[in-house]
Amino acid sequence: MIKIVDELLILTKRQNTISNEDIDLICQLLSDNKNINGVSKNSTTFKDVILVNKNDSVKPKNASQINYLNSVLHNEIVFAIGPAGTGKTYLAVAFAIVALNNKQVSKVVLARPAVEAGESLGFLPGDLSEKIDPYLKPLLDALESMLPYEKLSMFLEKNIIEIVPLAYMRGRTLNDAFVILDEAQNATTMQMKMFLTRLGPNSKAIITGDITQIDLPRRDQSGLIQVEKILKGIDGVDFVYFDKSDVVRHRLVKEIINAYEKFIDKDVITK
At a CB cut-off of 8 Å and minimum separation 6, what does 104 contact? Predict the structure, then answer.
């Protein structure tokens, strides 16, 4: 009980209010941190998990997100794999901002493959930079929700935060950096290897993706599908998995995922 009160006090100082969901999450977090003998397994508390942004605070909303947090705290490379709406990218950006604010790294680099999802890049208006911008907008949206406009503009102008297409990572060495590869299911095997070998000293990487939404010409080209077999067992590399029960986006997202799964399963059976 004392521990619960301590965590409530921490949360109150951070966001000036407490909801029923916050209380439930605190109880879940403390429960997950004990083994069957009541001995603490780790020291994760709300002091570790909350990023106070310009509008609210970012915190884990379920056990899978807590597991995600713990994995990022204890590994240099983390793969977060699961369906849309589970918070993979949003939390990855939050982790990166916390590391930057705490001076654990000196820069943040966010990358995405510029792979067409049913639309042609060539038909988009503008020069190459303007054509690529829409692919990177989801990462910018996450940043804009967490940082004041002036601070984000300064970070982007000074390249303290970079948002780049995956192809632009070739040849670079990223020292003292927090690096995120989003939509990694659309990275080929060679692109995945290229990205992972960019890491320099004091750098950390999160790779997020959904293997059910591959836009590559051939599914077997996805580096995200192959990488677990290649890197499994390497110390400092971890894989975190989400499923449809972890969806925290609009309530209909979970229903949409269920409906598509049933449709695909039925279609496979009839064939």
Answer: 178
